[in-house]
Design brief:
By secondary structure, the protein is mostly helical. 52% of the residues lie in helices and 7% in strands. The chain folds into 3 domains: 4-52, Rubrerythrin, domain 2, CATH 2.20.28.60; 75-270 and 390-410, Orthogonal Bundle (Citrate Synthase, domain 1); 277-381, Cytochrome P450-Terp, domain 2 (Cytochrome p450-Terp, domain 2, Orthogonal Bundle), CATH 1.10.230. Bound molecules: carboxymethyl coenzyme *A.
Length: 426
C-alpha cells in the first residue's frame, strides 16, 4: 500500500498525493510542503490544531494517554528520582549526567548566576509595582546586549555555553524583577547555595543576605521546600511545541539572538491561556472564597454566554489527566503537614476538581485539571508571591526553550517561519 494520502479537489476533479512521514512515537504526519506548488492553495488550520511545525527529538507528549517524556524518559520517573539540574543536563545533552558531570554542571551554573552590574542598573529604571513578568521580558532581551558575540550566534560549539549562561542567570533575573517590583534591594546569588535554594534565598533574604529572624531564631530554607520547588522546575522544563516554544523557534528562524528569542518565549508564556494560568488559578480560588460558592462558578464556566473559564482546566494536547498535575497533586498531599498549605483554598480546589471530573460538560470536552491547577497552592506555601508564579514557570522552562533553540539551529534545511493567510479584505 502506498505511504501517501490522496486529496481530491472536487472543483477541478484533480487528485494529489502527499507522503506520510512516520515518527518514532505518536501520530504520523502528512508532508504538505509541496501543497501550494501542487494545488495553488494553502492549508488553513486556525490555532495549529492539526499542524506539526517541526521535527524534534526532545520531548514527547501522548495527550490521550496523559504521557510526557523528556528525551524518552517518563516525567514521573524524572520528578521522583532526578534533580532539576540533572533534568537540564538531560535535555541539553540527550543523556543523563554521571556524578562528575552533575558536579561540573552545578558548579558552572553557580559561577554563571551573577548578572553584569550594568544589567542591575536597568532593573532600577522600572517603576516599583511593575509586574515581574514585564520586567523579566525586558531583562531577558537586554541580556543579549551584554553577551553579543557574532561568533557565538553562528558557531555550534558555542551553543551550549549560551544555553548554560541563560539557564544559570534566569533565577537571578526573576528574583531581581520581583525585588524591583516591591522596591526592595537586590540580593546577589550565594555561590555556596544550590540552583533552587539560591532562588528562594534571593527572593527571601534581607539586606546583607540575612534571613528572617523570629522568636525561634533565624529562619532557614527547609530541605523540603527546596525539593518541592526543584520538582516544580522539573515539571515545567519542556513541553514540546507549545505557544511560547513556537515563539522561540519562530524568532530563531529569522537568525535573531537566542536571548531575544527566549524573551519572545517569556512574553508568550505570560498570557493566562498559557503560563499565566498559574497566577489566575490562585486569584480565581481566592475570588470563589468558600466551598459554598463553587457551584455558582462551575455554572458560570459552563454558560456559553459567559466568558468565565475555570482556570487550570483544559489543555490543547491532554485529553486525559495532565501527568504533571498528577505529580503535583501527590506533592500537595506530602507537603500538607510539613508546610502550611492553605486549607481553605485546598478545600475549594478539591471541590472544583470533584465536580469537574464528574460533570457532563467537563467530561464530554475532556477538560481535566492541568499543572497550573495544583502549582499555585504549593508555591504559596513556599512563600512565593502570586505575581512570581509565572516567573517560576519561566525559570523551569528556560532550559526547554534554549534546547529547542539549539535543535532548531542544528536542524538541516530549517526555513524562516512564514505562514500565509486566507485574505478576506478589500
Ligand atoms: N473552563 C470552561 N470551559 C472550557 C475550559 C475551561 N477552562 N477550557 C476549554 N473549555 C471549553 C470551551 O469553552 C470549548 O467549549 P465548546 O466546545 O462548547 O465551545 C471547549 O472546552 C474546547 O475549548 P477550546 O478553547 O477550543 O480548547 P483549546 O484547546 O483551544 O484551549 C486552553 C486550551 C488551555 C487554552 C483552554 O482549555 C483554557 O483556556 N483553559 C484555561 C486556562 C489554562 O488553564 N491554561 C493552562 C494550560 S496548561 C499550562 C501550559 O502548558 O501552558
Amino acid at each position: 500500500m502506498p505511504n501517501t494520502v490522496t486529496l481530491t479537489d472536487n472543483r477541478r476533479g484533480k487528485s494529489y498525493d502527499f507522503n506520510i512521514l512516520d515518527g518514532t512515537r505518536g501520530p504520523s504526519v502528512v508532508d504538505i510542503s509541496s501543497f501550494y506548488s501542487d494545488t495553488g492553495m494553502f492549508t488553513y488550520d486556525n490555532g495549529y490544531t492539526s499542524t506539526a511545525s517541526c521535527n524534534s527529538s526532545i520531548t514527547y507528549i501522548d495527550g490521550d494517554k496523559g504521557e510526557l517524556r523528556y528525551r524518552g524518559i517518563e516525567i514521573e520517573e524524572l520528578a521522583k528520582s532526578k534533580s532539576y539540574l540533572e533534568v537540564c543536563y538531560l535535555l541539553l545533552n540527550d543523556a543523563m549526567p554521571n556524578e562528575l558531570q552533575t558536579k561540573e554542571f552545578d558548579l558552572e551554573l553557580r559561577h554563571r548566576s551573577f548578572l553584569n552590574e550594568g544589567l542591575a542598573q536597568l532593573f532600577r529604571a522600572f517603576p516599583a509595582g511593575s509586574h515581574p513578568m514585564a520586567t523579566l521580558t525586558a531583562a531577558t532581551a537586554a541580556l543579549s546586549t551584554f553577551h553579543f558575540n557574532h561568533l557565538e550566534l553562528c558557531k555550534e560549539s558555542e551553543y551550549q555555553r549560551m544555553a548554560r549562561r541563560i539557564v544559570a542567570k534566569m533565577p537571578t533575573i526573576a528574583a531581581f524583577a520581583y525585588r524591583q517590583s516591591i522596591g526592595a534591594c537586590f540580593i546577589q546569588p550565594d555561590i555556596t547555595k544550590s540552583y533552587t535554594e539560591n532562588f528562594l534565598y534571593m527572593m527571601r533574604a534581607y539586606p546583607g543576605g540575612k534571613m528572617h529572624i523570629d522568636l525561634d531564631g533565624e529562619r532557614v530554607i527547609k530541605e523540603i521546600e527546596i525539593k518541592a520547588l526543584d520538582t516544580i522546575f522539573t515539571l515545567h522544563a519542556d513541553h514540546e511545541q507549545n505557544a511560547s516554544t513556537t515563539s522561540v523557534r519562530n524568532v530563531a528562524s529569522t537568525g535573531a539572538h537566542p536571548y531575544v528569542a527566549i524573551s519572545a518565549g517569556v512574553s508568550a508564556l505570560w498570557g493566562r491561556a498559557h503560563g499565566g494560568a498559574n497566577e489566575s488559578v490562585i486569584k480565581q480560588l481566592e475570588m470563589i472564597g468558600s466551598v459554598e460558592n463553587v457551584d455558582a462558578f462551575i455554572a458560570r464556566a459552563k454558560d456559553p454566554d459567559d466568558e468565565f473559564r475555570l482556570m487550570g482546566f483544559g489543555h490543547r494536547v491532554y485529553k486525559n489527566f495532565d501527568p504533571r498535575a498528577k505529580v503535583l497533586k501527590e506533592l500537595q498531599v506530602q507537603l500538607q503537614d510539613e508546610l502550611k498549605l492553605d486549607s481553605n483554598l485546598m478545600k475549594i480546589a478539591r471541590k472544583i476538581e470533584e465536580i469537574a471530573l464528574s460533570d457532563e460538560y467537563f467530561v464530554s470536552r475532556k477538560l481535566y485539571p492541568n499543572i497550573d491547577f495544583y502549582s499555585g497552592i504549593i508555591l504559596t506555601a513556599l512563600q512565593i508571591p502570586t505575581s512570581m508564579f509565572t516567573p517560576v514557570f519561566v525559570i523551569g522552562r528556560t532550559v526547554g526553550w534554549i534546547t529547542q533553540w539549539i535543535e532548531f539551529k542544528k536542524g538541516k534545511g530549517m526555513k524562516i517561519a512564514r505562514p500565509r493567510q486566507l485574505y478576506l479584505g478589500k
